[in-house]
Amino acid sequence: MQTHSNSVLRQNQEDLNGGAIKLPPAYSPMSFMDHVPKVDESTGEQIPMWKRHLLARQIAERAFLEDGMRHHVCLILVTI
């Protein structure tokens, strides 16, 4: 069973890297904009809006995948 979980995690990571994830409305990148800083702490320069959108999308994708993995693990534990 461990190998199945690893393959699901690997597939989820490949989806994240390929940008092939279709996010449901609950994981809209705009919902995650508050988690993205406006200013780069290391340089003090403002982060361009396009980059903030990209970072928010990445945070939304990770949250979606992590919630999916939690759900998957719960299903495995219930069936054991």
Structure description:
By secondary structure, this protein is mostly helical. It has one domain (2-79). The chain contains two helices and no strands. Helix 1 (2-18) packs antiparallel against helix 2 (49-79). The radius of gyration is 16 Å and the shape is elongated. Residues 1-6 have low confidence and may be disordered.
What is the topology?
Elements: H1 2-18, H2 49-79
Helix pairs in contact: 1-2
Low-confidence residue ranges: 1-6
Our count of domains comes out at 1
Strand content: under 5%
Number of helices: 2
Radius of gyration over C-alpha positions, nearest whole angstrom:
16 Å
- DSSP strand count: 0
Helix content: 55-70%
Mass-distribution shape: elongated
Distance between termini?
A: 10 Å
Q: Which structural class fits the helix and strand makeup?
A: mainly alpha
How do the helices and strands follow one another from N- to C-terminus?
A: HH
Averaged pLDDT: 76
Largest sheet: none
Keywords:
80 residues; mainly alpha; 0% strand; elongated
Give a short synopsis of this structure.
The protein has 80 residues and is an all-alpha fold. 60% of the residues lie in helices and 0% in strands. The radius of gyration is 16 Å and the shape is elongated.
